[in-house]
Specification:
Domain RNA 2-O ribose methyltransferase substrate binding: 47-120
GO cellular component, one term: cytosol
Shape: elongated
CATH class of the largest domain: Alpha Beta
Largest sheet: 7 strands, parallel
Protein name: RNA methyltransferase
GO molecular function: RNA binding; RNA methyltransferase activity
Distance between the termini: 29 Å
Strand content: 15-25%
Keywords: Methyltransferase, Transferase
Radius of gyration: 19 Å
Length: 280
């Protein structure tokens, strides 16, 4: 169901692994003449760049801004679209933002330093009809795309481990295209134990697995529901598989019979959202 990843060229690590919500990690090798290379901010700073990421954060009353850099064109667009400014922007030339980001980063004239959004407790997350659980999915592009889909399909929370997960910042935030402002995270220490706690609170826990007993569309789903996805190539870890109430697969009719994890997530969430709606 999920493709094995294509391994990118090796790049040396430049900073320690981030804590949840922080800004650390590997982010490219371009030399910059000034400013702090991306990935070297303190762990308690969330970095946002790009139109959707920054504008949605500005519209979020719970997001605390520390700094906002904007080009003249980007600032005009913010004003034209009546985006509220909770912080005085620093008007800069595009090159000033270029120096803070990777070579291929598309910032569209906006860059911000913010406080990370507060995470939910597991008990709070369990109060939602639809949850998404990520079992050590570490690629920030994939997680960001998943967050974007989760926001579109009204996921109440994303549950993942505090370790072996990318920080909600930078590349992930850009890939989420503003979705971080609409789907809170819940970080747990032990995923299997967290799934057991969800089940004890009445949540149906369904793992996506290519060897699942039935197709997800043929699986009885009801709210509250937690869909569990594993990393590309590895899939769900053994203990995670054993803890799920049921394992389900996604059957595809075409010549390509597998999806990458972000595409599998949006398809599974769409199936689950429709099933929950019909069950009411």
């Amino acid at each position: 169901m999920i493709d094995r990843p294509r391994h990118p060229p090796h790049r040396p690590q430049r900073s320690p692994s981030p804590r949840p919500g922080g800004a650390g990690g590997r982010h490219g090798e371009r030399e910059r003449p000034a400013g702090r290379p991306f990935g070297e901010w303190p762990d308690d700073v969330a970095i946002l760049y790009g139109w959707h990421s920054v504008s949605e954060a500005l519209r979020n009353p719970h997001r605390r801004f520390r700094k906002l850099m904007a080009t003249e064109n980007a600032l005009k667009r913010l004003n034209d679209e009546s985006v509220p400014l909770s912080v005085e922007p620093e008007v800069v030339r595009p090159g000033a933002i270029d120096r803070l980001l990777d070579r291929d980063a598309v910032h569209q004239g906006l860059f911000a330093e913010c406080d990370p959004l507060p995470a939910l407790s597991l008990k709070e997350a369990a109060q939602n009809d639809l949850l998404l659980v990520l079992d050590q999915i570490t690629d920030p592009h994939n997680v960001g795309a998943i967050v974007r889909s989760a926001a579109a399909l009204k996921v109440g929370a994303i549950i993942t481990t505090a370790r072996h997960s990318p920080a909600a910042t930078g590349v992930l935030a850009k890939s989420a295209s503003g979705g971080l402002e609409h789907v809170p995270f819940c970080f747990v220490g032990n995923l299997a134990r967290a799934l057991e706690e969800l089940k004890a609170q009445g949540v149906q826990v369904v793992g996506l697995d290519s060897e699942g007993a039935a197709d997800l569309t043929d699986t009885a789903l009801r709210a509250p529901l937690a869909l569990v996805l594993g990393a590309e190539g590895k899939g769900l870890r053994q203990l995670t598989r054993q803890t799920c109430d049921v394992l389900a697969r996604i059957d595809l009719p075409g010549a390509i019979v597998s999806l990458n994890v972000s595409n599998a997530a949006v398809l599974a969430l769409h199936i689950a959202h429709r099933a929950i709606g019909r069950a009411r």
